[in-house]
Amino acid sequence: AKQLELILKLYADDAVFLRPDGLRFAGMTAIRAHFAETFASLDGDLTLTSEERGVGGNLAYDSGEWSEILTTVATGAKGNFRGDYVMVFRHEPSGGWRIIEHVWTLAPAPPQ
Fold first, then answer.
1. Which is it for the CA torsion 52, 94, 4, 99, positive or negative?
2. What's the mean per-residue pLDDT of the chain?
3. pTM, to two decimals
4. Which pLDDT value is given to residue 2?
């Protein structure tokens, strides 16, 4: 739904977001700019399938597979993508859990 402010509430101010192409976005300013740019150029239909999760102290993790249909806003071109993800969460003093590390991988396209 491209609700930038709601998505950003999932991340801690010092979070790091790592894309499959190796680009690293550290801190809320960089993550905000990345999502805003992405939302301006792409429409996405993302599915996360959690496969493993755990909690220890004030840290937790979730890992699994993702799949997404991306549509380029300018051209309407569609692409299907998939891969794996890991998110590390920290329990904040406010009482909520927020993402501090978010890593995506991109699976190679199947042979044609």
1. negative
2. 94
3. 0.90
4. 84
